[in-house]
């Protein structure tokens, strides 16, 4: 069974949308890790755990 040409681009389009959505927060996170860690006096590992816990609680 083949898909019509109009629907074969839905999955790649959604995948691209997902990549574009997550790439901005990932980039911003790398910019703010050192300043936040310096202000709070903590390590990047502790920051990662602290900010990932609410994400895992939501999902």
Describe the fold and architecture:
This protein has a domain at 30-59. It has two helices and no strands. It has helices at 10-40, 44-58. The chain is elongated and about 55 Å long.
Quick gist of this model?
The protein is mostly helical and 59 residues long. Helices cover 78% and strands 0% of the residues.
Mean pLDDT: 81
Q: How would the global form be characterised? A: elongated
Radius of gyration: 18 Å
Following the backbone from N to C, one meets helices and strands in this order, namely: HH
Estimated structural class: mainly alpha
Give the assembly state of these chains: single chain
Distance between the termini: 35 Å
User: The biggest beta sheet, please?
Assistant: none
* Uncertain parts: none
**Portion in strands:** under 5%
Please give a handful of descriptors for the protein shown.
59 residues; mainly alpha; elongated
Topology (SSEs and partners):
Blueprint: H1 10-40, H2 44-58
């Amino acid at each position: 069974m083949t898909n019509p040409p109009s629907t074969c681009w839905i999955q790649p389009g959604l995948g691209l949308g997902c990549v574009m959505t997550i790439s901005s927060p990932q980039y911003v996170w790398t910019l703010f890790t050192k300043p936040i860690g310096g202000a709070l006096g903590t390590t990047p590992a502790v920051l990662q755990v602290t900010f990932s816990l609410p994400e895992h609680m939501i999902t």
